[in-house]
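Consider the following assembly input.
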Amino acid sequence: MSAAQRSGTDHAGCVIGVDIGGTFTDCVAIDGNGRIVIGKAPSTPPDFHQGFIAAIDVAARQLGSTGEELIAGARAILHGCTVATNALVENRTSTATLLTTAGHADTLYYMQGGRRLAGENARDIAHLAGPAHTKPAPLVAKSHIVEIDERVGADGAVVVALDEDRARAQIRERVAAGADTFAIALLWSTANDTHERRLAELVREEAPEAFLSLSSDVVPRPGEYQRTVATVINAMIGPVTSAYLTRLGERLRDIGYAGELSVMSCTGGLIDVDRARRLPLLTIGSGPVAGLIGAGKLARTAAGDADPGALDAVNVLTGDMGGTTFDVGVIRRGEPVTRTETRHGQFEYFVPTLDVRSVGAGGGSIVAFDADTHSLRVGPRSAGAVPGPAAYLRGGTEATVTDADLLLGYLNPENFLGGNLTLGVQAARDALEAAGGPLGFSAEETAAAAARIVDDQMADAIRLSSIQQGYDPRSCVMYAYGGAGAVHCPQVARSLGISTLVIPLSDLAAGWSAFGVAASEAQLVQDLPLLAASPFDPEALNDAWRELEATVRKSLPTSMLDADPVFDRFVEMKYTLQVNELRIPAPGGEYTTETVQELVDAFEAEYVRLYGQGSGYPLAGFMITSLRINAHARITEVHLPASDAVAPHQVTPTGTREVIWYELGRNPVPTPIYDGADLGVGSEVIGPAIVEFVDTTLVLRHDQRAIVDPYQSIVVRT
Amino acid sequence: MTTADFDLNSYNSIAWDGVIHSYRPSPDWRSRVSPGLKVAESADADLDPVTFEVLRNRLWTINLGHGDTLSRMSGSPIFQALDFNMSILTEDGEIVMSAPFIQYLNTGSPLVVRYLMEHMSENPGICEGDIFLASDPWIGASHQMDVCIAAPVFVDGELFGWVSNAAQQYDLGGIVPGGWPQNAPDIYSDPIIFRPFKLVEKGVLRPDLEEMYRRQSRLPDMVALDLRAQLSGCRFAVKRLQETCDEFGADTVKAAMRRVLDTAQASFARKLEAIPDCTVSDVLYFDEKLPGDRGTYKVQFNITKRGDRLIVDNLGTDAQIEGPNGFTYMNFAGIVLGVIGQTMLWEHTFSLGGAERQIDFRPLPGTLSCVDYPAAVSGSVLNVSSAYMRLHNIIGRLQACDPEQQADIVVSGPDVPLVVISGSDERGNVFGTALTDAGGFGGGARAHSDGPNTSGSSYIPMIRMANIESVEQFYPLLVMYRREATDTGGAGRRRGGVGMDVGLTPYHARSIEMVTNAGGQGVSTNQAMGIFGGYPSPTAEYRMLFGTDVGEQFAGGHMPTDIPELSADREEVIRGKSNGTPILPGDVLTRTVCGGGGYGDPLDREPQLVATDVELGYVSAAAARALYGVAVTADGLDPAATAELRTSVRAQRAGWPAVPQALPVADQPTSTPATGEAPRHVGEHLTARDDGPSRVLACRHCERPLSDYRGSYKHGLLVDIATLDILPRVKDPRFFLDAEMEFRRYCCPGCQTLMTTEIARSGDPIGEEIRFA
């Protein structure tokens, strides 16, 4: 009899989502009745699996069970894994050896020239003599880059045959020198991967244990710089991720878990362990993506309740404000917005990811006087977790946004992080006074200024991303989470004209990514690069779709095959003579001339939507540059039960505090303070008000109305 | 004539009307604006610093969104290399903020805006929803291909401000495809000029005018897409500015715009105050007025700093000549502003209008750096970038006089040797493009660190060098190799970043023809100039290998990755200006683009850094020895041999003749009396101090007096006059030129520190460099 069978309770068959962050490991367990509990435990680097088990244990106790019981009886264990991210950030990666096409060893070093600066802030770009203009340390030393005599052309033809003997000798030499991690990135392997595959065989023959990363496998997308970076990073983090997942898998099996471990990916879904081992790159950035998926799940559930037909029209904007960054994600008409490239510092690389963007605005962002513009600036420098805000009393002396929040009365010095950290008001005051002094500002004035500037910076960031991602913030429901999300987003939402703001599932907010992991589907995203010009031949497209579908089917794990996967199709299209593509959903089934025309029409409609009436130029013709299949399957059913609706009712505040509302003036106003634990479904709070939860604080501006909905989320009408 | 005896009265009588001379608004230009145009001039008097900061961020965001709209909508690979810029301007055409793209490209927008207001506000009028197009280089376009789009921003029926962008088009006619005709004797062979006209009337694009525009191009579809991108960009920025005015109130937004300008101006003025009054000058040369010409033409910049102002003139510059060589006034002013924006004003993120208020531009028209109509100018735009690069060193000499600003010096980067190809592929599809695959120029050295390798170009800080896979996707080419190039960064205590070597051959091409277009003396003599004893970077190169065995080598299973691996029927080094070189199957085109100039004496570079450079292939062992005095063997650095080498190089320098013995020296000014002030560092190698009854310039390292304070310190140095080929990779310039070019190295007679280097036409006087007042 297994532990779960013995227990015989309703927590048998839990779906367990675990998200490992830098500091804490969060666990969300959802039992068969939709009951949700969370567990939090310190992360335990480098043996992250210990924190993993510990967090489940905390959650299990709330269900009257133990971690081992919960694991053994789990229906699914789903995992958001930052092992790769941490290894990369902390330079604890393997040394990769790169095999690349003869004549092109320096691709990684160019960084596409000035393109490397695209993610830097304005001043750093302007400051030619400044640090951003110095290139970062290379990912692979020149001595570890091997040029292979071979060449494939843009049309996929072999121009120079692979010199296998020489390649084998070169590989052997590197292996003898200790190389055990290989990245293989050849020109045009997207059009013909024969040489890459053959080289992989040679490496396997010479070094059977080596970790291998192939560009045609990692991300088959033309553009050798970004593809090579992706392939190299994938190799660098491969061994550490593999080792971790192996240890974790063994531990779970020892406990009695017989199911599959699934790992969250940045594509927006869960992948099986084998795929995560092979493509650890997909785990980077999966935390913020999981948050977006969680918000989407909640939004769909809420929208479905109101109007089942509205599911596809859901527009969601997520704002995750933590210590160092503000991460923004978008779901547009039911579909998360995706992108094809991302960055590791100044290294840009391809990866099919949901488009969650980071802005350097968080609780730790530094507030400082700027002599040159004679103004106060907030960020992009951050005090991070160490030393952190001045109020943390950990040695930080520079003022931060958190210090400002404290002095304005948003935060309760005695009740921060559930009372686990006492904030130093005087330290915050001193730091803010120093920052605003040159402007003649008092500490309070400086605090008000900092809050206003950072709120506006976040709104600006959303305005800019809305141009680039093609959405109107006013059509979105905004979901705010992360420690400081509920503090600042009510004002951000108001200034963007967003009418509804949701603080999801109240006390779940801090474990939000873990919930997102638990709410995710299994997914496999596969691209097929193409260069097809209009008029499109439907038969050629049908052939390409068949080829791509076959590839996907071959790669699908059994868990997905058994779960009735849905194949969503997308094409990347552009006007001929254009360089930038748009990705648009494509119909399934066999294509005819009519289907092809539908595609073109959809492309043109999207183009006009993004760029305005009259901006398209159909006379130039059209090109399809890539096909994508997003295969997804629901391997777990997470049902969020709604409580019965309760008529709106007021809650009694626990007291009042002096709070400065910068939009109304500089004088503190006595403001009611609520304890989040007192709020239940139907509870209503009208701003100005502060609602204190264990992990976050809701700062409700004037005339904003917050009500707890049947899912325990706080819905704010801004 | 020198700057001192400049006749301001006669200068002020020049007719800057945009007909023969360039357009420059006269001080009373506003009096000619139609009274029917309501101009919003009011601004809040008491803008609080917080709203200011919020709005400053907002304006920046609008510019970035404007740029994003342009690059994402546009079709041309040129736009993808971010060959554009955009600005937000006040109602009277001051640039409040530009974007981080090509830094001089849209500096003509104030000229366009003021021209429109002065000449077109009555008829055809300036109304809400209008958008104007202008490509006249004698008004505000850098050259005809950089088409400027400007849109007024109206709030409550009043002209609140302007937004504009300028962007490079693929083709707008002229005798050579691509818009850079090297064989245009005058403007009538150049791409077409558009005098400013109203393309969009009250929100409606005039189809007749768009047709007129498209009709000029060999690729009308391409320019139509780009035009739409530019219009959308302006529309976007207008809308966002209007929304911002709705949100904050127009007077508040205007107050923020004014304060952006005021703070940038004040900051720039403050930096200038920290520098002693002086005049900095530099001379550079342009080669080849028309393809095949062997002439050398002189261009000089003089920047006089007085108090908190600059005066910029071009005395010493040759008169304009036939062929595409010179540039118009817009560029003369724009490159000065562009360099200042990146070196002295970076805290203000391209708020160029603030700096412009502190500068008097006084170029003489009819000269190479301020040409009159009807000079050919489209094909000479790379001379603009050469001059831009040289200005880095001129501004750098000013910055070096203030220890706080010294860290912001960026030495000259290299020129941009361009290749434009056109032709058809195997299936007969016609193509044409400027190649952007060799955009890995190295950066100039900084006072504190080496220049970045293969980093792009300073004046396009975010330039995207194309992937091989995008070049080969669009054009019938195969790039055989592309690598960081040894010895292409200028030597120095801080080394210039290196450039790259690229080799390509046709792939499934029917026919390809090439136009080359190189600025300055980039292929004959050198690229970036060094500073404070730093060396120049060497020449760029275009080389054609006709009828090679590349096909046989491919078939035999080998990719040749360097010139010596190929055997060719014939080799030819292509000139900086050339048209119509065919590239046929089996031919190979190789290019070298260079890096930046060096900073400081190469003998002062830490030997281990040189050894590492050798190991990584950035410096050859031969150059390490010859230029740095560092011995590197297969085992790495040889410290003993290095010490010996350096001692012997210094001994050689001690034997160089004194400057007055080697070069003609002009009269020294009268002696400057001692001031009693403390010694002051005025540059990397110089100290100004009292020496008995006189104020002198002395070596900062060995304290030896070199000249009177107001004299040329170079007169007190030792000099070596060498041929250019002592630089690695540089060949005899006489292959291209009639003139003899010489490389002059100047060292301190006391400590033999290499203080400065210059490249001059034989017989030309010593470069003035810096003269204190």
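Chain B has four domains: 29-268, 410-600, 601-645, 655-772. Ask yourself how this observation constrains the way the partners meet.
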